[in-house]
Specification:
Blueprint: E1 3-7, H1 12-22, E2 29-34, E3 54-58, H2 64-70, E4 76-79, H3 86-91, H4 94-113, E5 118-124, H5 147-166, E6 170-175, E7 177-179, H6 188-198, E8 202-205, E9 211-216, H7 217-230, E10 236-239, E11 244-246, H8 247-258, E12 265-268, H9 283-287, H10 296-309, H11 311-317, H12 321-340, H13 346-350, H14 354-365
Parallel strand pairs: 1-2, 1-4, 2-3, 4-5, 5-6, 6-10, 7-9, 8-12
Antiparallel strand pairs: 9-11
The protein binds nicotinamide-adenine-dinucleotide (NAD) and thymidine-5'-diphosphate.
Residues 7-8, 10-14, 33-37, 39-40, 60-62, 80-84, 99, 103, 122, 124, 152, 175, 177-178, 184 line the site of nicotinamide-adenine-dinucleotide.
């Protein structure tokens, strides 16, 4: 019986992935290993609890002894476990290095020792850095700009080295930004959706024109499974839906879908080192037969509906320590924006493009393009 280990399976993508493995992909034995950090949530997998083909283990991927207990008989590892929020990595990067780099190393060692037949490393398009035009290909150099993306790039280098040096059959996926059910409300789309529902300001960094390529989480999960099952050992696969959007456009869409007020849009001081644009070429994963199934408008409708129908889930997450985090991350920025008026951020008042950014937000607030 095939045993599949999903690390980080109580987080956003990992929980969607474990559900998909046991559902449509008919896996026989799925083990989720998760440390349950602030980002991990047993509610995300509560529907899987009690199944005979599913097992949850609370633990750290850095714990070598624990891995020695879990890994014997494991056929495939999907390593989702990571510290994942760029803003938190800017405040404190040590935990990112520990889990994303050292944790991946511990898992790789364990995989080698216990004869795991496939190691799938869930990486990110952020390892390439920012691109002004065109799309990154898998062979492009890695130029990570945040402590988060640097730690993910470090992990990838170790994964690659275990293939080249020891012949461990690894595959790496680099996906673009995900959205959908169970995403922690610290991230852009769920933060804006839940703030819009609550009538709170929507803090857009900088000029609101940074571009991400958004993929519905189930499409990414299917691509990861295909890369795991059919990908060539040692290869990297970009994953993206080609739905490139500036943040301001998404914010406006969210306000519309949530039936909120455009006046909630608020330009705030930018994130340091904020990558301007991400875009990936997905020819390789499509050659394995993958296609996206959910277009952006449909995915956003489903996502906003999910957050509307699951207020208990995100309201509990937004309590307690999240409130302290929110104050630290946004308190000063929102105050400065309020003082400056009309959503004009302190930093951009003197910066280039400040006028047009302000005008774009004002136009959105007045309901014009
Ligand atoms: P998430 O923050 O929602 O979940 C991460 C999970 O890992 C949590 O359940 C957490 O408890 C667990 N975890 C953290 N440290 C751990 C440790 N030391 N041992 C065991 N478990 C630990 O993250 P996500 O958005 O679901 O991302 C999952 C993976 O996908 C990450 O590797 C991330 O880098 C990658 N990724 C995410 C995106 C995205 O848009 N969310 C895009 C590309 C790649
Ligand atoms: P995020 O969800 O943090 O993902 P990443 O930084 O890994 O791409 O952010 C997505 C985009 O949204 C990014 O350009 C930063 C921007 N953003 C805001 O403008 N305001 C916010 O409060 C957050 C969290 C993100």
């Amino acid at each position: 019986m095939k045993k599949i280990l999903v690390t980080g399976g109580a987080g956003f993508i990992g929980s969607n992935f474990a559900r998909m493995l046991l559902g449509r992909r008919g896996a026989r034995h799925v083990v989720v290993l998760d440390k349950l950090t602030y980002a991990g949530n047993l509610e995300n997998i509560s529907d899987l609890e009690g199944r005979t083909d599913f097992e949850f283990i609370k633990g750290d991927i850095c714990n070598v002894k624990l891995l020695d207990g879990i890994l014997p008989g494991t056929d495939v590892i999907y390593n989702f476990a990571a510290e994942t929020h760029v803003d938190r990595s800017i405040m404190e990067a040590g935990g990112f290095v520990k889990t994303d780099v050292v944790g991946t190393y511990a898992l790789l060692q364990g995989a080698l020792k216990h004869g795991v037949r496939r190691f799938v490393q869930i990486s990110t398009d952020e390892v390439y850095g920012s691109i002004a035009r065109g799309r990154f290909r898998e062979t492009d150099p890695l130029l990570p700009n945040s402590p988060y993306s640097a730690s993910k790039a470090g992990a990838e280098m170790l994964v690659r080295s275990f293939f080249r040096t020891y012949g461990l059959p690894v595959v790496i996926t680099r996906s673009s930004n995900n959205y959908g059910p169970y995403q922690h409300p610290e991230k852009f789309i769920p933060l804006f959706v839940t703030n819009a529902i609550e009538g709170k300001p929507l803090p857009l960094y900088g000029d609101g024109r940074n571009v991400r390529d958004w993929i519905y989480v189930e499409d990414n999960c299917r691509a990861i499974a295909i890369a795991g099952e059919k990908g060539v050992a040692g290869e990297v696969y970009n994953i993206g839906a080609g739905d490139e959007k500036p943040n301001l456009e998404i914010a406006r869409k969210i306000v519309g879908l949530a039936g909120a007020d455009m006046n909630l849009l608020t330009l705030v001081d930018d994130r340091p080192g904020h990558d301007r644009r991400y875009a990936v070429d997905t020819e390789k994963i499509r050659a394995l037969g993958w296609r996206k199934k959910t277009d952006f408008d449909e995915g956003m409708r489903k996502t906003v509906e999910w957050y509307r129908n699951n207020e208990g889930w995100w309201k509990a997450v937004k309590e307690g320590r999240f409130k302290r985090y929110y104050k630290r991350m946004y308190g000063g920025r929102l105050e400065s924006a309020a003082k400056a008026g009309s959503g004009a951020p302190r930093a951009s008042r003197s910066g280039s493009g400040a006028g047009s950014a302000k005008a774009a937000v004002r136009a959105a607030r007045k309901g014009r393009k």
